[in-house]
Design a protein that fits this description.
This protein is 38% helix and 15% strand. Strands 1-7-6-5-4-2-3 form a 7-stranded mixed beta sheet, sandwiched between helices. The structure holds pyridoxal-5'-phosphate (PLP).
């Protein structure tokens, strides 16, 4: 099956009892047994639920994995991956991570004895240089949030496995989605998503996903999902499954609109710099073109006026772009990283990597691009 067919049919079966084309919402915690231990594959919904199973099969299909897992949030999916490790283990990761991931690494898992090395992952050697005999996991995010840096997934995975084949490589594929890049095909062990974003696609749920190919890793992650219990509920699983069915059509338009917005901002006299991997002057444009099929709908930019008030004026003036956390929904959103998504990052760290007062992140939605650009134009004039 090609991708556009997989998003609709991948891993799906019509419901057995009635032939329902859409997997129903199995809003049940438990399942009748005819004799102790004699059941129909479902015992208790923390272990498995038919609606969640249908979604997990869809996750596996669209990422070219063998097993998928649906969690209560993106962060609980990351939490499950870190539970594969033990005190003393080390993790090498990017210095430009989603704020919540950074917060989990530094404020939760550091105190349980994991050690994190934060490096610039646009240079593969920074990662290999940070690897020690204790390294058990390399955690990548590409494109990064909010600076849209790109890591060379294939080169990094090869270099890491060359050093030690047992080190796991995981990619947070939230920004790109499998419509644009498929990390498991590049040798990565674990793909993670905040399904809250593009996979769900309609800003109506919070959910996380993990997808793997390796059977043993799947067993370990299923055990963690079952034993720690941060599962996605059946209603949310239904909504995410419904969202995935239009992922390819939505992503195509997100990419078209994202490109148009990036080009518009790039020519605007009040804009200092645009961060969009599709622009030729983006420092990682070449790698992005190699590993991604298009460049997505996330666009960040900095105003020439670095005063905080200038960014606030812009963010308060848009009428179609809604100032809100999150991304990847049908509606366009704006975000001020330093006060919103990245408020938990120390100022010194932020400034070092370029998250300044005037940095604005846009999630370009599916509205008419003419209306979106007109909205940005009037807000930039304020
Ligand atoms: C939102 C997000 C997360 C966290 O996911 P939640 O569903 O909010 O828990 C992780 N990584 C990236 C890149 C995100 O955008």
């Amino acid at each position: 099956m090609k991708f556009n067919t997989k998003v609709i049919h991948g891993g799906q079966q019509h419901e057995k009892a009635t032939g329902a084309v859409m997997t129903p919402i199995f809003q049940t915690s438990t399942y009748a047994q005819s004799s102790p231990g004699a059941h129909k594959g479902f015992e208790y919904s923390r272990g498995a639920n038919p609606t969640r199973s249908a979604l997990e099969n869809a996750f596996a299909s669209i990422e070219n994995g063998t097993r998928g897992f649906a969690f209560a949030s993106g962060l609980s999916a990351i939490d499950a991956v870190l539970r594969l490790l033990k005190p003393g283990d080390e993790v090498v990761t990017g210095n430009d991570l989603y704020g919540g991931t950074y917060r989990m690494f530094t404020r939760l898992f550091q105190k349980y004895g994991l050690k994190f090395h934060f490096v610039d992952i646009t240079k593969t050697e920074n990662i290999t240089n940070a690897i020690s005999a204790k390294t058990k996991l390399v955690w990548l995010e590409t494109p990064t949030n909010p600076l849209m840096n790109i890591a060379d997934i294939e080169a990094i995975t090869k270099a890491v496995k060359n050093k030690d084949a047992a080190i796991l490589v995981a990619v947070d594929n939230t920004f790109a989605t499998p419509y644009l890049q498929r990390p498991l095909d590049m040798g990565v062990d674990i793909v993670m998503h905040s399904a809250t974003k593009y996979l769900g696609g309609h800003s109506d749920l919070v959910m996380g996903a993990l997808i793997v190919k390796d059977e043993n890793l799947a067993k370990e992650l299923h055990f963690i999902q079952f034993a720690a219990g941060a599962i996605a509920g059946p209603m949310d699983a239904f909504l995410a499954l419904r969202g995935i069915k239009t992922l390819h059509v939505r992503m195509q338009r997100h990419c078209e609109n994202g490109r148009a917005v990036a080009d518009f901002l790039n020519k605007h006299s009040k804009v200092e710099k645009v961060y969009y991997p599709g622009l030729e002057d983006h420092p990682n444009h070449e790698i992005a073109s190699k590993q991604m099929d298009d460049y997505g709908g996330m666009v960040s930019f900095r105003l020439k006026n670095e005063k905080r008030e200038a960014a606030l004026r812009f963010l308060e003036s848009t009428t179609i772009f809604t100032l809100a956390e999150s991304l990847g929904g049908v509606e366009s959103l704006s975000n001020h990283p330093i006060t919103m998504t990245h408020a938990s990052m120390p100022e010194e760290e932020r400034l070092k990597i370029g998250i300044t007062n005037s940095l604005i992140r846009l999630s370009v939605g599916l509205e008419s691009v003419d209306d979106l650009i007109a909205d940005l134009e009037q807000a930039l004039e304020k």
